[in-house]
Specification:
Layout (H helix, E strand, L loop, with lengths): L33 E7 H4 L6 H7 L3 E5 L9 H7 L2 E3 L6 E2 L12 E6 L2 H11 L5 E4 L21 H11 L3 H21 L8
Parallel strand pairs: 1-2, 1-5, 3-5, 3-6, 4-6
Helix pairs in contact: 5-6
Length: 198
C-alpha cells in the first residue's frame, strides 16, 4: 500500500520530496520590477502550483489568502501599492514599458491560483488597483501539468517570465524560464511522461 507523503516532507519551493528537489539547480535573481503574488492558500499546497517556485527564484513579494489563512486580502493596503493587476478583462490594457515613467518602479500584482480563483480575486481588486493588464494574444502556455482548453491561460511562472521579458529584465526572464522548464520536465518525468521544450 502506498504511503501518503505529508506536505512537511516536500520542499516548500519546488514541491518535490528532498531527493528530487531542484532548488540547488535554480538561479536566484533580483529585479527592479516589483511583482506581488496574491496566492490562494489552497492552490499553494498543490504540487502543480508555480507561484511557490517563482517566490523561490525571485525577490517577488507574497500575500496569501483563502480558507487556510486567518485574514482576507487587505484592500486598503493594495490601494497604497498603486499597482496594476495582471488579468485579461475586456478593459485590460496591453502590457508595455510605456505605462510607467522612467523614474517609476513597475509594480504588478499577479493572482496565483486556479483561473476561477484568479478571476474572483481580480474582480475584488477592481477599484483598489491602478488598472488591469493583459499580454498580446499570441502569448500561449507551455504548461503541461494542468489541463486547460484555452492556450492563453498562462500559469504564474509563465506570467512573471513574460512580464520580465516585456519590461526588459532579460536576466530574470531567463532564470524563471530555466527553472520553470526544469520544474515541468521533472514533474512529467516523475509521472512517466516526457516533454521536449523548443
Amino acid at each position: 500500500m502506498r504511503k501518503n507523503r505529508s506536505p512537511e516532507n516536500k520542499c516548500t519551493v519546488c514541491g518535490f520530496i528532498p531527493r528530487l528537489c531542484i532548488c540547488s539547480e535554480i538561479e536566484k535573481v533580483n529585479s527592479k520590477i516589483r511583482i506581488i503574488l496574491i496566492q490562494h492558500s489552497l492552490d499553494a499546497r498543490k504540487p502543480s502550483n508555480t507561484g511557490n517556485l517563482l517566490k523561490g527564484i525571485t525577490d517577488c513579494e507574497l500575500i496569501r489568502y483563502g480558507k487556510l489563512e486567518d485574514k482576507p486580502v487587505d484592500l486598503e493596503a493594495i490601494e497604497k501599492l498603486n499597482a496594476f493587476v495582471l488579468y485579461p478583462f475586456q478593459d485590460s490594457i496591453l502590457l508595455t514599458k510605456d505605462i510607467w515613467r522612467e523614474d517609476e518602479t513597475p509594480t504588478i500584482i499577479i493572482p496565483d491560483g486556479t483561473w476561477k480563483q484568479a478571476s474572483r480575486l481580480a474582480s475584488r481588486l477592481r477599484g483598489h488597483c491602478r488598472g488591469f493588464l493583459r499580454f498580446p494574444s499570441n502569448f500561449v502556455t507551455n504548461y503541461k501539468l494542468r489541463d486547460s482548453r484555452e492556450e492563453f491561460k498562462l500559469c504564474t511562472c509563465e506570467s512573471a517570465m513574460n512580464v520580465y521579458g516585456i519590461l526588459g529584465d532579460t536576466k530574470s526572464e531567463q532564470a524563471v524560464k530555466n527553472a520553470f522548464e526544469l520544474f515541468v520536465y521533472r514533474n512529467l518525468k516523475n509521472r512517466g511522461r516526457l516533454i521536449s521544450f523548443q
